[in-house]
Amino acid sequence: MNKILLIVLLVLNSIVLLGQLWPAGAPPFARLVNIVFLSMSLLYFIATIVKRKSSR
Description:
The protein is mostly helical. The longest helix has 26 residues, at about 30-55. The chain has one domain (about 1-55). The chain is elongated. It contains 2 helices and no strands. About 0% of the residues are buried.
């Protein structure tokens, strides 16, 4: 499950980066991709931190 989530985050990150490097070529749904990427990243990091604290 972790690998799949990381792959999804990497794909979303590459779309976000491409939109930053080439704004004219950004798809019309770029804003939504940015919001989804940031939200998923935040949830992933929080879950990782909570998991590490509970395993100590």
